[in-house]
Amino acid sequence: MARAVELGEAARGTTAPNPAVGCVIVKDEQIVGEGATAAGGRPHAEKAALDAAGAAAKGATLYTTLEPCAHDSERGPTCAAIIPEAGISEVVIACADPDPRTAGSGIEMLRAAGIDVRMGPNAAAARSLSGYLTRIMLGRPRVTLKLALSIDGKIALPSGESKWLTGEDARAHVHAERASADMILVGRGTYEADQPRLDVRLPGLEDKSPARALLSRTAEPLEGWTMLRSPTDIMALPVNDLLVEGGSGVATAFLAEDLVDRILIYRAPILIGEGQSSIGYIGLDKINDAHGRWRAVAGEALGIDRLEVYERLRDLDQEG
């Protein structure tokens, strides 16, 4: 399953609105086939792994990060149907699919075909599928907010100068995050000040540069950009993972609407003092109301800088 998660994670940012699934087929303790959801969403991971395994799939165990699909599609076969046809004897699934078109039906189809189905460890798989799961359960992409800050929480000098606040290692990490996103969003101020490319400039990952979006109530449409007039417009985006990079205004707007699920803070070892704050008023009037909303989930050194990762606590987390 760890290998299946690895395959799915590598496909993130290329499969939306389909999930980035990984699949591994094992026979006699040897991997005989593996695959991930292809760019654009088809073929599915299970189909790719079965094609790779060929006749060796008969009597084998299939590991997949998400419950095999059970609904018909003009774009390809139903995975819960082709798995029995290939002679698979056992299926291990990391995460159930909350999509109402499948939700349990995939497991039922497999069991009805005489296949032994087990639910496996899902924590790592749920993280790799987090964008898709968020979109199905909340009706919008999973939103990651990226902030580059000084020790005292400033994003720029009073003049607006902020280049470069963090070092090369932190910037490389940002590009890796971009490669896992379906779309990057900035505000009009960031666009006009920096004319950002918002691409991925890591060797071997240049082709994983995500789509670009601009948040502005008044800007004219830009060729090659998706225009959003309000943060809530993300509800209509056919993407799983949205990375919000640009500016205090955008960060404030998304936080005020409670649309941020994850925050990446790249903290530079510098003090700015008087300068531009990272976030404005987000609707909190009491300190007590700020508690219990976020949890720190990771932290690491990135060269001279430090990365802090926070996740939003929501009712669906507590429900499992």
UniProtKB/TrEMBL annotation:
This is Riboflavin biosynthesis protein RibD. Its EC number is 1.1.1.193, 3.5.4.26. It comes from Sphingomicrobium sediminis. NCBIfam families: eubact_ribD. In the C-terminal section; belongs to the HTP reductase family. Gene3D superfamilies: Cytidine Deaminase, domain 2, Dihydrofolate Reductase, subunit A. InterPro entries: CMP_dCMP_dom (IPR002125), Cytidine_deaminase-like (IPR016193), DHFR-like_dom_sf (IPR024072), Eubact_RibD (IPR004794), RibDG_C (IPR002734), Riboflavin_Biosynth_HTPR (IPR050765). Keywords: Hydrolase, Metal-binding, Multifunctional enzyme, NADP, Oxidoreductase, Riboflavin biosynthesis, Zinc. Residues 1-118 form the CMP/dCMP-type deaminase domain. CDD domains: Riboflavin_deaminase-reductase (cd01284). Converts 2,5-diamino-6-(ribosylamino)-4(3h)-pyrimidinone 5'-phosphate into 5-amino-6-(ribosylamino)-2,4(1h,3h)-pyrimidinedione 5'-phosphate. Pfam families: dCMP_cyt_deam_1, RibD_C. NADP(+) binds at A148, W164, T190, D194, G247, S248, G249, V250, A251, T252, A253. The active site is at E46 (proton donor). One of its GO terms (molecular function) is diaminohydroxyphosphoribosylaminopyrimidine deaminase activity. The gene is ribD. Substrate binds at S162, R178, L198, R201, E245. Pathway: Cofactor biosynthesis; riboflavin biosynthesis; 5-amino-6-(D-ribitylamino)uracil from GTP: step 3/4; Cofactor biosynthesis; riboflavin biosynthesis; 5-amino-6-(D-ribitylamino)uracil from GTP: step 2/4. GO terms for biological process: riboflavin biosynthetic process. Its cofactor is Zn(2+). Zn(2+) binds at H44, C69, C79. Binds 1 zinc ion.
